From TrEMBL:
Keywords: Magnesium, Membrane, Transmembrane, Transmembrane helix, Transport. Residues 29-132 form the Magnesium transporter MgtE intracellular domain. The keyword Kinase does not apply. SMART domains: MgtE_N (SM00924). SUPFAM superfamilies: CBS-domain pair, MgtE membrane domain-like, MgtE N-terminal domain-like. The keyword Cytoplasm does not apply. This is Magnesium transporter. InterPro entries: CBS_dom_sf (IPR046342), Mg_transptr_MgtE_intracell_dom (IPR006668), SLC41_membr_dom (IPR006667), SLC41_membr_dom_sf (IPR036739). It is found in: Membrane. Pfam families: MgtE (PF01769), MgtE_N (PF03448). It is a multi-pass membrane protein.
Amino acid sequence: MHSQVAALIETLIHDEHSPESVNKAISELTPDDVALALESIPLAQRKQAWANIKQANRLDILVEMRGESRQLLLKELDDPEIETLFTDVDAEDLLEITDSLPDRLVDIALKQMDTKQREYYQQGIVYDDDVVGRWIDHELLIASQSIRTSEAMRLLKKSTPDYTDMVYLVNRTGRWVGCVKFDKLFKAQGHEPISSLIDEDCSFIHAHTELTKAAEQLERSALSALPVVDDNHILLGRFHAGLAMETWRLEHEAQQMSTAGLNEESDLFAPVKRSAATRGIWLGINLLTAFLASAFIGLFEATLQQVVALAVLMPVVASMGGIAGSQTLTLIVRGLALGQITRSNLKSLLSKELKVGGLNGILWAIVIGVVTLWWFESPMLGAVIGLAIIVNIIMAALSGVLIPVLLDKLRIDPALSGSVILTTVTDIAGFVAFLGLGTLLLL
């Protein structure tokens, strides 16, 4: 599939953007592949390509585009074009893109919807975008708990939605009462009440459940979908395997982008000023932390002037602390994401990481101390850097555990800002330990 996307990119960049060539190139691709290709070409060529895409394909492609890419494209369209674009929009698609649309465009889209889809949209918009209630699938097989098996079998003669392996039962008020798997339904007698076939092991997902936790629950269930209910146990829809896989993909992408201070919604060819402003904030934060570390180094200026070897060896201390801290930080961030870290096991985890840090600190302090002794022929300098390595690696282990936990408590993404804070702490701790010991023992 990557080769087909690459071929489409070549077509969009080098061809003359005739409707025939563009639509022929996208005919065998999914909307998300076409969206990826459009995001991979400069804005001017993207607008030309968009103008030649069939109207029937545009909405599906727009939904799959990243938020910033979508905004840039919609800016080029006038109201009549937008009304035509949103003619067949459903609630799930509008919920997907509503955060990147101004209220005016949302109102235009809502006017195009039928009553049922508008109701689904109003139902979903009250939930945050990181919980299941926002992303419910409304295509599911629902039956009354009072019908017989033969009546339920008629449902299966209709088109069955993807990721469907059961019928959801509700009472007269719409409250979910249980699930009946297809295999039980096929084996039952036609006269049996369907309520007698309810699977006792079938669980449900509350609408306020976080998406990642819902995906984990679905994975443990070994089912292709689970029902989603509200506070009153009313059946709202379902959360299926396709949504779970999309959740994991977006979560992984968000973590990758956040480590560089970027947003997964960023456009590859966003305007220069916008991209510079977004990245500039991150560079500014790093600059502040660098100045902070430099300020601590400045406290030992006299020491550095007298013992030049300390300046030569400073990067070794900082690097060892940074790597050790990053290893611990990565494990803790993963543990937080998986719900493995709680108040009850935090103390044991901290103790374990400090022991690992102490053991590695001693081991590498000996190695670096011996190398320093051989290099500079100074036993005292070897002892200084060895002690500094031990202190910094232990501090890195302590920071690697406590910083992400604290950020998580403050509802700040530890994957985004944890590495910046950790690097600052280990740099300062390493420099102070190394230069402080150098001042005490070498002068």
